[in-house]
Specification:
282 residues, alpha+beta, three-stranded antiparallel β-sheet
Length: 282
């Protein structure tokens, strides 16, 4: 997906040309359904602003009152199921594919994620990261059986970045489950096993419903904007940054006034993609 300046603002990645991919997708879906049957969900896990379906998030985050970056916490039962999902080879393949697509089509974003992740690892070796083969900081398992999202944005994600969405399940993609990008006026077929990357913090998105007897799950990966700001502020809160380095804080506020121009820099222009990729060795 290109904007008027030919910047890549989304990627309809589909699926890799791999004879085993369909099997991996099937196993990932089965593992998520098994986890759903064993987890204990709170109302906020099943009725939320994104939709009416159970979901569980895992990984490293910062925001919502956290004073320092940390791992998302769950009950012992749910944490055990999340760990089983993170250890599932099929899900690791989905994670790696999403990260590789980000690297190829949004190398500047991938580099920023990788550098921020490395800085956080150095700052706190106790942080536990989801996957060895993915640059994303966190992931959400949308456990179905009918994962259909409302019109929303993911405003906690890095505004200049992209998230990875992989559709799973058993549904007719010509009749339902489409990805709707409301701001762009696009309705995109989104078959099971396919991956799409979008800047989910700034593009309104959602899904078309599926048929009553069909099932749809999804697996998403993303990077909290708070993590990037934490590192940029010298491993501290914005409040502490303002108090300890007022001049640097004021400069950062001035940069925010040019946020649109700053955001555009992270999205590669299509004809320059080869140069952007060639200059980056992950």
């Amino acid at each position: 997906l290109l904007d008027k300046n030919k910047r890549i603002i989304g990627v309809l990645a589909g699926q890799p040309r791999d004879d085993d991919w369909e099997l991996a997708v099937s196993r990932a879906c089965a593992a998520m359904e098994d986890a759903r049957s064993r987890c204990a969900f709170k109302v906020c896990d099943t009725q939320h602003r994104r939709g009416l379906y159970p979901c569980l998030a895992a990984g490293v985050s910062y925001g919502g009152g956290q004073q320092v970056p940390g791992n998302l916490q769950h009950s012992k039962t749910n944490q055990r199921e999340i760990q089983a999902l993170l250890s599932e080879p099929a899900i690791q393949r989905l994670a790696g594919f999403g990260s590789s697509i980000l690297c190829h089509y949004a190398p500047k974003v991938h580099k920023l994620y990788a550098n921020t992740k490395a800085s956080l690892k150095g700052m706190n070796p106790q942080l536990v990261w989801n996957f060895h083969n993915s640059v994303f900081a966190a992931a959400t398992f949308n456990l179905g059986p009918a994962t259909v999202t409302f019109d929303h944005t993911d405003n906690g994600n890095f505004a200049c970045g992209m998230c990875s969405i992989t559709a799973l399940g058993d549904f007719n993609p010509t009749n339902g489950g489409h990805l709707v990008l409301f701001d762009l006026g696009l309705v995109i077929q989104f078959p099971p096993g396919s991956t799409i990357l979008i800047p989910s913090a700034i593009l309104r998105h959602g899904n078309i419903p599926i048929a009553p007897l069909e099932k749809r799950l999804s697996f998403t990966q993303y990077f909290a904007g708070g993590l990037i700001r934490w590192v940029e502020y010298g491993f501290r809160t914005e409040k502490a940054f303002k108090q300890q380095c007022p001049e640097a804080w004021r400069a950062a506020q001035l940069q925010r006034q040019t946020r649109v121009e700053e955001a555009a820099v992270y999205f590669s222009i299509s004809k320059e993609l080869g140069t952007d990729c060639g200059g980056y060795k992950p």
